[in-house]
Amino acid sequence: MKRIKLVFGTQSTQALDLPDHLYEDVYQKAYKPFLTAVYNYPDLALTLHYSGPLLSWLERRHPEFITVLREMVERKQVEILGGGYYEPILPLIPASDRVGQIEMMTTYLRKNFGRRSRGFWLSRQIWDNQLAHTLKSCGMEYTFLDETRFKGAGIPDSRMFHPVLTEEQGKSLQIFPICKRIQDQMFQQNPADLVEEICKLPLESSRDAVVSLILPGESLNQQKGHDFMPCDTVWLEEFFTCLAENKDRVESILPGRFVRDTVPLDKRYFSTSSFEELMEWKKDVHTATENEQAGSCNYRHFLSVYPESNLLYSKMMYAQILSNQVRGDRYRKKSSKEELWKGQNHSPFWHGPGKGIYNIQLRHNAYRFLIEAEKTTREKGIFIPALMPMDFDLDGLNEYLYQGHILNAYCHLKGGALIELDYLPSSWNYLNTLSRHRDGIANGSKRDTYLRKAFHDHFFESPDLRAFKKGIYKEEGDFLGGYYNVQNHNREKHLLVLMRNGSVDKNGIKHPIRIRKQYDFKRNSVELQYELTNTGYEKVSYNFASELNLSLPAPSSCESKFFYINGQDDFLEIEDQVAELKNLKILQVQDIMNNTSIQVEFSILPGRFWCLPLEVPYNGHGENELLYQGTTFVPHWEITLFPGESWTVDISLKVGKSRGKAFA
Fold first, then answer.
1. Which of 40, 447, 533, 621 is the most exposed place for a label (fewest CB within 10 A)?
2. In this structure, how many other beta carbons lie within 10 angstroms of the beta carbon of residue 558?
3. How confident is the model at residue 527 (pLDDT cuts 50, 70, 90)?
4. Rounded to two decimals, what is the model's pTM?
């Protein structure tokens, strides 16, 4: 009787640059007890994958773990899978970066474990057929996909336990199916029953059947309520004992040995696909057909569902262009590339573990790496600040990118708003905010219809702070989503003038109005001049406001504080979570964590000024909480204009190093 071949192991990854105690907690509760348990079963073949940054952390903090792992590799018990070193969504990054990240990981494994990887672990199981060519070219011979993709490729249940061959441009790759139906029962079912179930799987007796179980390493510290319990090593040891007792029916193997045997394999092509949960998160822009398998949709839809993800992707592509332009300095180019690759980590791009795109810290980490990559490409004494047009976010229209020595500021024609504001000494994007999307609304709130960035033009019917906070206010103007025209662009003087003829709807009557926005980008400030002109034939009163959102360290952690100077030049602190102020003259924001101050000054005192946290409900992975994404500031002016009359206000936004006290 043929024995069932079992490929068993884990794949472990962590987001980059998280606090050390988070890594340590998972290490103590998952990675360490698992390796300790399997170490005592030398006949059990293990297939393991660890991301590059996680291996580096283990090497630095727990070298004994690496020593044990190396011993298990040397005694041929363990096979370590390769991957992209910084865990990118591989099909999403340029081909040269794919190869670079794979080679970096391969080199690390060869140096530390004396083996070159022949197998590959796909980050988040995102597959694109072009990967077959890339992986094979990098020396990989096989990878894994879960069984739902096999069903999507038309493979019947009776042949669900056999690797298949796929091909791209003459390069072929073996793909093992991951048996989710068994994997999901690990730690849930009695070990003896689970082994018996494996033995009774409906298999074709004429061929070698392979059951692959590759568990997420982090899931071994099982969640019970709000607490994470250590890995259940008792269950694992009982499972391993049952496997040993049934070795005449189940053979534990390394996949690398299996692919060495030349056996006939079916040839299949898999559609561009992603994991099943992504199907739910992209419903806004894509409706599944009846024949579409869960998880078989294009993973790139999340760039449409979350425009912030698209902006991060655009920044990554832009940094990649700049990095490729470095010539004649291999060390600078290498340094820039490494920062870029760190910024390609998949975690902040989607709605994944660790709260993904909802985790402001993950997004800040990614922006920091990408800004560092951009800074490294600049040659001292050669770089000249400029304001240039470029289709930055890949929407078919040009955005205007100011690149200075201290600030980067990117302006979008939609709404005439700023979409990115980088303070380069801290490598911090102060517009790294997140709007309320379909999955981020609760308690009567509405989703946002625009990106919550800087200088959004509002015309409120009746200013109501609570209604604004919930997004249930009435907007009279049509400027938030309207596109501005470029009236003047001066690359050398860093001047950009935008204009839009729109209207304000009052009681069903539309009153025409023109807004002219003049951006003047300076070394450490953005100077914005608004000019509103009544182009109608009637006298109209407006409640005009310009919304500014800043992505700051959370005020609850005391890492940022807000102050203002009023009309009497009194210096006061804004202490309330939600505040409505009057007579504000200057706003000062202190970013204590980055030792930075942001000062906003108005040429005309706002009649009303709102300050409120920008919080987004997060309800993924069984959690339900409000996550801080930034702080919103909204100055208001009540204006009455006669036909043909104009009104002007200047707003100055300065960013600089904090000098210990406000306005020093």
1. 40
2. 10
3. very high
4. 0.92
